[in-house]
TrEMBL record:
Every HTH lysR-type domain range: 1-58
Species: Candidatus Levilactobacillus faecigallinarum
A GO cellular-component term linked to this record: cytosol
Keyword Membrane: no
Family: Belongs to the LysR transcriptional regulatory family.
Annotated PANTHER family: HTH-TYPE TRANSCRIPTIONAL REGULATOR YBHD (PTHR30419), NITROGEN ASSIMILATION TRANSCRIPTIONAL ACTIVATOR-RELATED (PTHR30419:SF8)
A molecular-function term among this protein's GO annotations: DNA-binding transcription factor activity
The name this protein goes by in its record: LysR family transcriptional regulator
Amino acid sequence: MNIKDLDYFHQLILQKNFSQVADFFGVTQPTITLAIQRLEKEFNAKLVHRDRVRGQLLITDAGQQLDVYAASILRKLAVAHREIDRLTQQQTILGLPPIIENHYFPRVAARLQAAGMLENIRTIEGGSKALRTALHDGQADIALLGSTEPLSYDSLVAEEFDRQPFSIFVAKQHPLAARKRVYFSELRQEKFVLFTRSFMHDAAFNQLSHRNHFRPDVVFRSADTRLIMNLVAENVGITFLTAIVDQHRNDVVRLELMDDEQPAFISSIVYRTSHVLTPAQKAVLDILHQTLGPQS
């Protein structure tokens, strides 16, 4: 079987138009037609049906089933290309959510620099949810991820190294600023400035909202911690962040949450079970272990 035939077929499922798929790959339409015919012969089943009266392309049950496997094969093949390409390099791509990057990575970077390895590190940033996808897709080799529950995936190794509580941050002039602790239920009437939904903070925030039976008034979302804190300082709203946020400012006040059974901000070192780490990547992983000390 030709892998390219699967590629053509998968794209045909997505676009449902032979000529558009041909244009997509820069080939002739008969090339796509022959590829589908080869697959139909291979599986002894009709995969697509052209309804010339309505001008539609219909996907048979067999075609839909094959596409499930085709999509998986093509995705894994793309990951294999990325991994094998990097096996010949000394580079390690490290996924870092912004809060974890600011709090933990400086210590890691110091050890990497002392070992002469920092220049071979390339980082990609984003929320933990997005970076988990980047790991699955082979766009990152290792990541430091946040979660509200211990990570457990067949395709990923996750080694927990820290747990921290969440806190509420308010402007210095906010009425709650005189308090040191607060219940989440007391925030029912507040306006919130939060991370975007690609960050696991959103899951923890939703847990507390549902538990306290109210829909929060979220006035703004951002992926930028500094911007969120600046908006809080201007009293645009209050925010919900892990306590490891290093604010270093006197215009924002942190309040502890007093709720029972709070979600925790769990930090883990994560990498793919299928990924053959290069010697350089193994050395990076060793430094992460030495610096962050995963819990047993």
